[in-house]
Amino acid sequence: MKFKYKFFTRWVVDGFIEINSQRSSFDGITYVRDCLGDLLNALMYLNADCVSPGDGLTTNTSCEWDAEPSITTWNFTLKTNGMLHVIVTYDGKEEDEDIVDINTECPYDSLLEVIILEVDSLIKKHGVVGYKENWDHEFPLSTFLKLKSYLLNKKPYSLEEIGDEYSEIKTSQLHNDLDLLFK
Fold first, then answer.
1. Which of 71, 101, 115, 123 is most buried by a 10 A CB count?
2. Per-residue pLDDT tens over the stretch 93-142
3. For the whole model, what pTM was predicted?
4. Which of 57, 115, 66 has the alpha carbon at shortest distance from 86?
């Protein structure tokens, strides 16, 4: 399993995803959508250690990436055994023609690991401000940290709740957030 994601030029990314010998390349994906943030959110909302049922936990998610004029669509379905059904399609030349590049299953944790490793490398190479300058969207830092923490610890992100039964505020420790970013 492999995932590559790199800036080709400012506001354009290239790369590929390969799962079970099925490969989908994405070239010329543009900043029209926050594709990396959308992908990480799609994976996070499948994870009960990252999202509670009342906050949008689901078993089906998707996201779309624009390559102007074509669109790559990622669909995820989490099965009860931890397997993830992944379908990646893109627009064909004909109207209403979707071409399927990937239609397979893999362990959720395995796919998440290759994606988080690549994103970790990307943010360490470009930095938070550099990412924003290259992409025109903020780096999805909190989503990334929740998913990275899950991979390392297999438990929810450490948050403290302050307040009473009528009003609560959740906080994290900034030094813990930064330590995790640099792990």
1. 115
2. 667 778 999 999 999 999 999 999 999 999 999 999 999 999 989 999 99
3. 0.93
4. 115
